[in-house]
């Protein structure tokens, strides 16, 4: 039973009926090809006149949610496969990211645009300001625009009711960089665990035994896997994992430096730091210098991502490179397969990372690369 209509809020009743039916269609209550209740039944259900129901259905038809056939009824067409020449429902897909603040996101977009061009697709690009509510609203708006599918770089790894409804209804959705806990989806991500494992193994190979871990305070699978790679490298080398050698900071829109200064000042035995991304590594640089620590003589630093500024620092940063452009490319390819129905199982693609060795770790090798797929 639907909630009663609000008859004193100034919103026409037909708009309220239309909105309720649209939500039910988007939520998967009425799958493509199913028919809505007959007009007399809808009148009884909503307690409105037949003219009101007809206005509501006419609005849904004009917006592409239903098709009305005289003498047969009203049928749901939202989500039906109406293919164009390239085999897709429409030529428009969405790409939603949590923020636009570094070269990682823009490089993902470059890869996505390359693949989209090959399939004659256009991309609607949106960002969610690192806010779950904003992300949900952006996704809802794009679905309402009847895009063929969406690529989502989620704010974190917490599933939301809106995304769960999208997946349940069969709406084409591919995640990048991370997946969501407890919700099977298509996704494309890099080998976060292997990349971190190789980075810390490298530091251990240089003779470091007390290695700090610096991370965001963020519930995302990608960061958890990097932290797991850090711990695994210690265990495999016979070194103890010490929680006191870890530091979590807030990271959006800017890194909180004070906790890093406190961490480095109270951990004099730490000779190296693995930062789970390059922005944090840059904050470690700043904090170390404020404490009079030289990089790499007093403190070796390794980051993750290989953002475009890392090679231009006065001490170029050793870092783990994610294949961001390839992630964007593969995400579009996976989305096309999902839209076309050629993906019969979940597409869960993990791409290898590379350790790029520069001066910040104190190694003699310059600009060497090591592939995480080998480990």
Structure description:
The chain has 375 residues and is α/β, with parallel strands linked by helices. The protein folds into three domains: 13-76, Arc Repressor Mutant, subunit A (Orthogonal Bundle); 92-189 and 324-351, 3-Layer(aba) Sandwich (Rossmann fold); 192-323 and 354-374, Rossmann fold (3-Layer(aba) Sandwich). It has eleven helices and 15 strands. It has a seven-stranded mixed β-sheet, sandwiched between helices. Helix 10 links the parallel strand 10 (272-275) and strand 11 (300-305). Helix 4 packs across helix 11, helix 7 runs parallel beside helix 8 and helix 9 (258-265) packs across helix 10 (278-290). The longest helix is centred in the last third of the chain and has 17 residues, at 324-340. The chain is elongated, with a radius of gyration of 25 Å. Residues 81-88 have low confidence and may be disordered.
In short:
The chain is an alpha/beta fold and 375 residues long. The chain has eleven helices and 15 strands.
End-to-end CA span:
56 Å
CATH superfamily of the largest domain: Response regulator
CATH topology of the largest domain: Rossmann fold
- Which runs of at least 5 residues are low in confidence (pLDDT < 50)? 81-88
What gross morphology would you assign? elongated
In the CATH hierarchy, the architecture of the largest domain is 3-Layer(aba) Sandwich
Integer average pLDDT: 89
**Largest sheet data:** 7 strands, mixed
> Into how many domains do the coordinates divide?
3
- Taking all Cα atoms into account, the compactness measure Rg is 25 Å
Count of discrete alpha- or pi-helical segments spanning 4 or more residues: 11
CATH class of the largest domain: Alpha Beta
State the helical fraction: 25-40%
Write down how many β-strands occur, each being a DSSP E stretch of 2 or more residues.
15
Order of the strands making up the biggest sheet: 9-8-10-11-12-14-15
